[in-house]
Amino acid sequence: MDIFAEQTINSFMASKILIIGACGQIGTELTMALRKKVGSNNVIASDIREGSRELMESGPFEIADATSFESIENLVIQHEIEEVYLMAAMLSATAEKFPMKGWELNMNSLFHVLNLAKDKKISKVFWPSSIAVFGPTTPKNDTAQTTIMEPSTVYGISKQAGERWCEYYHKKFGVDVRSIRYPGLISYKTLPGGGTTDYAVEIYHEALKRGKYTSFLKEDTELPMMFMDDAIKATVNLMTVPSEEVKIRSSYNLAALNFTPKTLAEAIKKHIPEFEIDYAPDFRQAIADSWPSSIDDSRAREDWGWQHDFDLEKMTVEMLEGLKEMYPGEKQE
Ligand SMILES: NC(=O)c1ccc[n+]([C@@H]2O[C@H](COP(=O)([O-])OP(=O)(O)OC[C@H]3O[C@@H](n4cnc5c(N)ncnc54)[C@H](O)[C@@H]3O)[C@@H](O)[C@H]2O)c1
């Protein structure tokens, strides 16, 4: 499906784009979408490892370490980069296991990119934040753009600090940095990279592969989620609108769906009636319990016209359809 069918290539500046962390869950689809839109040679993908065949064969790729200022600066100069999307990070569940590594990767990579923008070597930055900036003391339902933020995970602390630095660099140095607090993202093209919402991807794989799934979150754990196509659409839209429309320079709340493992399982059962779920919560339950159940994203809707396309049913159809090739022979109704 072409999620940018109505947009034209003219709506983008013909500037060169660098995606750091391009081989991850979001980076892969973002790279493919941007290449389709602005031309493959205008989008340089980079990561510390190689990615999917589709990504590697679709345009320029460079191995680079996001924690090395020199490596990133070299790429920017060599490819005459104007815009950087910084997607490299250590995610919530993994960063709890390697706190200092997580902090170093998440913060140093951001400083490198912000400093390149401050020194006018690049003109625009996208940096993703997360619902992990919120914590146990944050109001859980319809969590407001501006509210209590006392994150209790290494990842959340790094994202909250990152947001403050983004706003600081914008106010102090005029850096054009744009950001979204992504909810849990669901996709079938690339596997998730160690987050607390990974269950919502794994469940579709296991439903097709084995007809059953053991959730690492309790049945009633409600979290904000979004289908990847919507997240990519939001990201590209936010980066395309005129600078004056971007009124929040920390990071925008963004929402589409909220569901629990139980409601997700019920949505899958409509298509695979014999599907079964059970529950064995692990350390990720505590992380999920500290996050909001739903998000108020009215500022994104007002400021730059955000609208989501995928509800739970539409996403479920798309996920099962998309994964069918990987698990042929499975019956669906
Ligand atoms: N996926 C989600 O549900 C979600 C939700 C909220 C926020 N985010 C944020 O979006 C961004 C991308 O997330 P993702 O899910 O694609 O993550 P991911 O783990 O799938 O991908 C991250 C990529 O970064 C690469 N990387 C790691 N260390 C690197 C380094 N030193 N140098 C260069 N590349 C390196 C990895 O190889 C990987 O390909 C992250 O900032 C993440 O915090 C993701």
- Into which percent range does the helicity of residues fall? 25-40%
User: Can you give the mean pLDDT?
Assistant: 94
Q: Report low-confidence residues grouped into runs of 5 or more.
A: 5-13
β-sheet strand percentage? 15-25%
Beta strand count = 14
Our measurement of the CA-to-CA distance between the termini, rounded to an integer number of angstroms, reads 22 Å
Please give the order of strands in the largest beta sheet. Answer: 3-2-1-4-5-7
Largest sheet, described in full?
6 strands, parallel
Query: Based on CA inertia axes, which overall geometry fits?
Result: globular
Number of helices: 12
What structural class should be given to the helix and strand makeup? alpha/beta
Q: What is shown here, in short?
A:
The protein is an alpha/beta fold and about 325 residues long.
List keywords for this structure.
alpha/beta, 12 helices, 333 residues, binds nicotinamide-adenine-dinucleotide, six-stranded parallel beta sheet
How would you describe the overall organization of this protein?
The protein is an alpha/beta fold. The protein has helices at residues 25-38, 53-57, 69-78, 92-97, 99-118, 154-173, 199-209, 228-240, 261-269, 284-289, 298-304, 312-323; strands at residues 16-20, 43-47, 61-63, 81-86, 124-126, 129-130, 177-178, 180-182, 184-186, 212-215, 223-227, 252-253, 257-259, 276-279. The strands form 4 sheets. It has a 6-stranded parallel β-sheet with strand order 3-2-1-4-5-7, sandwiched between helices. The radius of gyration is 19 Å and the shape is globular. Residues 5-13 have low confidence and may be disordered. Bound molecules: nicotinamide-adenine-dinucleotide.
